[in-house]
Design a protein that fits this description.
The protein has 107 residues and is mainly alpha-helical. It has a domain of 33 residues. It is elongated. It comes from Ambispora leptoticha.
């Protein structure tokens, strides 16, 4: 008799839990709110204002970045050019040495 009562209790509890979760879920699921039609012109105006602001910000950033790039000293460019020339010279000398060693080894 005890087992039967326990089974009934567990069964009832399980059903109650399912019912509770289903109710909670239904309360949490909301239909998407419709935008009132009279708000649409205001939203469109806001979109235009935001688009213009973004455009201004981007333009200002581009201008600022261009100015920063212009400020790079010409000396840096010359120094980099000299370094590249030295590296090329060094590499070509090393290549000549390697070729001589190769020919000396073969002959």
């Amino acid at each position: 008799a005890r087992r039967n009562i326990t089974k009934q209790f567990i069964s009832k509890t399980s059903k109650d839990q399912k019912k509770y979760h289903k109710t909670i879920h239904q309360q949490n699921v909301k239909e998407p709110e419709e935008i009132p039609q009279d708000n649409l012109p205001q939203l469109q105006d806001n979109s235009l204002v935001n688009a213009k602001r973004l455009e201004e910000i981007l333009q200002n950033n581009l201008s600022a970045n261009a100015k920063k790039l212009e400020k790079i000293p010409q000396d840096n460019l010359l120094a980099n050019t000299k370094k590249l020339e030295e590296m090329l010279q060094s590499n070509s000398q090393q290549t000549l040495k390697d070729e001589k060693n190769y020919h000396n080894t073969i002959y």
